[in-house]
Design a protein that fits this description.
Two copies of one chain form a homodimer. Chain A is α/β, with parallel strands linked by helices. Chain A is about 40% helix and about 20% strand. Chain A folds into four domains: about 80 residues, Barwin-like endoglucanases, CATH 2.40.40.20; about 45 residues, no CATH class; about 220 residues, Pyrimidine Nucleoside Phosphorylase, Chain A, domain 2 (3-Layer(aba) Sandwich), CATH 3.40.1030.10; about 80 residues, Pyrimidine nucleoside phosphorylase-like, C-terminal domain (Aldehyde Oxidoreductase, domain 3, Alpha-Beta Complex). The first copy, chain A, contains 17 helices and 19 strands. The mean pLDDT of chain A is about 90. At the A-B interface, strand 2, strand 5, helix 2, helix 4 and helix 9 of A face strand 2, strand 5, helix 2, helix 4 and helix 9 of B.
Chain lengths: ~500, ~500
């Protein structure tokens, strides 16, 4: 029997348990590897990895200390009596070895893996192994099995709704924050759209980050239902909802190792939307030479995969392949993207037209989910809702209902990247622009990012600004500066001399 | 500027840095993922992963605390002034993504990966990703490149020796501790054999574990040279030598995720032996249906791979394929294996004959590396050395020189596994025997393991003991007991009735 203690340390999603080297309940001498223990005493036992401490002020030989993650899960007060046992490796780890060897795993195996991840029986190393092993090749039924396993037990039910819609973009396009505009239009039309948005994984801003600039997004299921009842639309962060929990742990590791495979993204997105009770989902698959999805063939393969999994799990999918050849809008980074969104909703003259048009196109497709709407009318209805100011009105009501956020400042450290030739912008490299934004601090600081002054087809004079870098601190700023000169991401054809 | 502190926490090979949530040098608010920092102030900067602390007694806002691993590396006293910067992901991580996508990596890429691992720029998750990504497929030149990168800068030079020999078994066979016998014979003959042995990775006992039962094995290069000068032979643990350091970090992750691919083992073994200054290496590749290497084809492929890498890196390789169809000797686990070894060296009547014969065969092959020896005489010379007691004499001198170990006790919790039929032992499942041993605590406790009373071909009566389980603590014992009944690992043909 040991006494429970909390060491208030946050370890980014991994459960750690600290024992004294002379712990009365465990012989530490022969510990040479990461050792997993099971902690008994709470309603359900909690798994954690041992760290060995040689200081009784941190943890006594009669105590077991847990970091914040594990302490929250065991849900017992400090001083509670607990016991520990060694936890053998979960049998599902052998499926990962089978996957490395090139096998197709069964749905039972995926289910066991996801259950063990959810129960924290996997270390982050184990999860990384699973992601890399399955990331190199997954069959279509495997993606279905993974999706089904990740939906989990808890799902949101929308009792009085026959259609509940949402939109998801498969990303890789800087500045692409159509979601805020689409949600406003669709909610104004009257279809319920409880948007479960993510924070940035590998981009400069996730939809949740951009909405965070305008309103609070951290709410639970109960509040989400209330928000939808009030306004038909809401944009909340999926992290705050207790659905698809295993996926959160997996995403955290994906984020940390920086590896995101299409198959995992497909499973992740569909699992979240299914758990959120979405019945009709529009999936936007942007294609471009410097986007995440590089060819129409690849996009088509992905569309078929999503449609297949959607059909098998009874969610209506409309998957559209769109132009992903350059950034959408001018801002890249949460604050700048929120600015673009509000310009479009306010029908400002300087609103980015590409962002507006793409939002109308996609919102129109969602409206067509409504059987009452005459086929082909979606776009026009969406345009009327935007132009009339009704979309802006809904956005303002959503902001009011979700609670206005303390507006973060645009990064005050700036540098203008200028063109060294006169000519025409021929191409903008999405992945490079995304990287420079990340280096400038975007994804971590809402105010960091890039403001694009020129887009493809624009004429530019020598010395004219292509884009402005915004950083919130000198470390990020120095780093972005040190790398941007190598390659700005812009391709400019210089004026011909005749 | 922050003040350095040590939090005496051991985290199994990962560098962790603890900062207060109100740290004066770093804004913690937006931390949502594992963040890597570079710590400046020591001779060279040290990389570590941030953990955020909400208790000024652990770390003040003006301090940075390091765990034992990182504190040892920065090599500064507590109270020293240090500064931190955010560390961007190392560029070599992009090679891992290329590997997942099925590409062949260049030697420059392997070199960059290994350098970054050595500098602790990789998290354990990143290393796991590398192992899984490369584990699914590596070309022969890639194994060469990985080996070369892992040799590192520091190597041991044996100035007055033209031949320096060693032996390595590619494992998977329980009880196979020929190394201690071979080393004694070869050293008695006069060839220098500085054996760099490993602790158990996935087996019940590594060579270093078994030698630890008899003598201390933790010595540095200087002491190793002195030991070889004295006795021509020594068996030390590679962990204590400052060679092939990146491989130690990789092995630690391999051990934790339980994934060991042949290509990695090949690179690891050859890198260690090259760094140890070995000029002639005998590699034993045991083949059996329940061994790590299951077919002669697979063994042949591995032999060619090892020969290729050896040839390119100028180490003379003699790779032999041996019978791995059942455990070697009777003991499985360090204490029991050491007992078997000493019985062979003492020419006891009850010494396991298979262990003796295999040791003589392999020792003979090593002796044949000596140009002065007439071809085909190796085995006979080895046998003469063993029979005459000269091998035992050398072992006793090695034990004396390395320092006698405090002899660990054989596990006192025992259970006899008996046969439920009369008949003949047809097969023993190596991997099952290994697993039962591990569950009983072997690999972690020297005294745990299995004592095999029956081998393949032996007659057994119903109720007669097949093997005895030894455990050192009740947790392991209970666990081994709960699983062994499912499948004992023995296949017995029952006596026919006519």
């Amino acid at each position: 029997m040991l006494t429970l203690k909390n060491l208030p340390i946050s370890s980014f999603n991994e459960n750690l348990a600290y024992i004294h080297k002379d712990c009365i309940a465990y012989k530490v001498d022969d510990l040479s590897t990461l050792t997993k223990i099971e902690i008994h005493g709470g309603v359900k036992s909690v798994y954690a990895f041992l760290q060995v401490v040689d200081d009784a002020r941190l943890v006594k030989p009669t105590e077991l200390a847990l970091n914040n993650e594990a302490f929250k899960q065991i849900n017992l007060p400090e001083g509670a009596n607990i016991s520990i046992t060694l936890s053998p490796p979960p049998p599902s780890l052998s499926s990962i070895k089978r996957k490395i060897a090139g096998n197709i795993l069964s749905s039972g195996e995926y289910s066991a893996i996801i259950n063990d991840i959810y129960a924290r029986r996997y270390s982050n190393m184990d999860i990384a192994s699973f992601l890399v092993a399955s990331g190199s090749f997954m069959s279509t039924p495997e993606v279905l099995a993974l999706t089904e396993a990740m939906v989990g037990d808890k799902t949101i039910h929308w009792d009085n709704e026959s259609i509940v819609v949402d939109h998801h973009c498969l990303g890789g396009i800087p500045g692409n924050k159509t979601d805020l505009i689409i949600t406003s239009i669709v909610a104004a039309y009257g279809l319920p759209i409880p948007k479960t948005a993510a924070r940035s994984l590998t981009s400069c801003a996730g939809v949740a980050d951009t909405m965070s600039v305008l309103a609070n997004v951290d709410y639970d299921e109960k509040k989400l239902k209330q928000l939808i009842n009030e306004n038909r639309g809401a944009i909340v962060c999926y992290d705050g909802l207790s659905i698809a929990e295993a996926n959160k742990i997996i995403s955290s590791v994906e984020r940390q190792i920086g590896i995101t495979q299409q198959e995992h993204i497909t499973a992740s997105i569909l699992a979240i939307k299914l758990a959120a009770g979405i019945t009709h989902l529009l999936v936007d698959i942007p294609v471009g030479p410097k986007s995440r999805i590089k060819s129409t063939n690849e996009a088509m393969r992905l569309r078929k995969l999503i449609e297949y999994v959607g059909d098998m799990l009874s969610i209506e999918i409309d998957a559209v392949i769109t132009d992903g050849s350059e950034p959408i809008g001018n801002g890249v980074g949460a604050v700048l993207e929120a600015r673009d969104v509000m310009k479009v909703l306010r029908n400002k003259d300087d609103a980015p037209q590409d962002l507006k048009e793409k939002s109308l196109f996609l919102a129109g497709r969602i409206l067509e989910f409504d059987p009452k709407l005459r086929g082909g009318q979606g776009y026009l209805v969406a345009k009327e809702i935007l132009n009339s100011g009704r979309a802006l009105e809904v956005m303002n009501r959503m902001i009011h209902a979700q609670g206005k956020a303390p507006q973060p400042q645009l990064g005050h450290l700036t540098r203008d990247i200028v063109s060294n030739v006169s000519g025409t912008v021929e191409a903008i490299d999405n992945s490079r622009i995304n990287k420079i934004g990340i280096w400038a601090g975007a994804g971590q600081y809402a105010g960091a990012g890039l403001d694009l002054f020129k887009k493809v087809g624009d004429h530019v004079e020598q010395g004219e600004t292509l884009y402005r870098i915004h950083s919130c601190n000198s470390t990020d700023f120095a780093f972005a500066n040190s790398v941007v000169d190598g390659y700005t991401g812009y391709e400019i054809s210089s004026r011909s001399s005749y």
